[in-house]
Amino acid sequence: MASSGMQLTPAQQASIQYQMQNINESRKPESVGVTILFLTLSTAALVMRFWARKVARAPYKWDDWTALAGWVRFLQSLGLMSTNCMSCRPVICVEIIWLSVNRYRRSCSV
C-alpha cells in the first residue's frame, strides 16, 4: 500500500473511516420520496401544459415538444438510477473511493 511512497492525506483517511463506520446507513427512502415527488410534479405540469394548449385551441409549438422530450429524458434517467444506484450495496461506494485513491497513487508515482 505504501510502496509508491504516497500516503493518504488525513482528510482522505477520515473520509474512508467515516464511510466504513456508517456503511449500513442509506438515504434510499429519502431519494425515492424526492424522486416520486418530482416525477408527479413534472408529469402534472406537462399534462396541464398540453391540456391548456388544447383548450385554448392553440397549436403545439417547439417549446411544448422540447418539454415533452425533457420529460422523457427524465424518465430515462430515473430508470437508470433505479437499476444502477438504488439496488447497489453501500460497500460499493467505499470500494470505488478506495480504487480511485489507489489509481491516484499509481499515477503520481510514475
List the helices and strands and how they pair.
Blueprint (H helix, E strand, L loop, with lengths): L9 H12 L6 H28 L6 H23 L6 H19 L1
Helix pairs in contact: 2-3
Question: What does this protein structure show overall?
Answer:
The mean pLDDT is 75. The chain has one domain. Helix 2 (28-55) packs antiparallel against helix 3. The protein is an all-alpha fold. The protein contains 4 helices and no strands. The chain has helices at 10-21, 28-55, 62-84, 91-109.
What is the average per-residue confidence, as pLDDT, rounded to a whole number? 75
- Strand residue content: under 5%
> How can the largest sheet be summarized?
none
Q: Which structural class matches the secondary elements?
A: mainly alpha
Distance between the termini: 15 Å
* Rg result: 23 Å
Number of helices: 4
User: How many distinct domains?
Assistant: 1
Question: Considering DSSP H and I runs of 4 or more, what fraction of the residues is helical?
Answer: over 70%
Q: Could you name the ranges where pLDDT drops below 50 across 5 or more consecutive residues?
A: none
C-alpha geometry = elongated
Number of strands: 0
The succession of helices and strands, N to C, reads HHHH
Comma- or semicolon-separated keywords:
mainly alpha, 4 helices, 110 residues
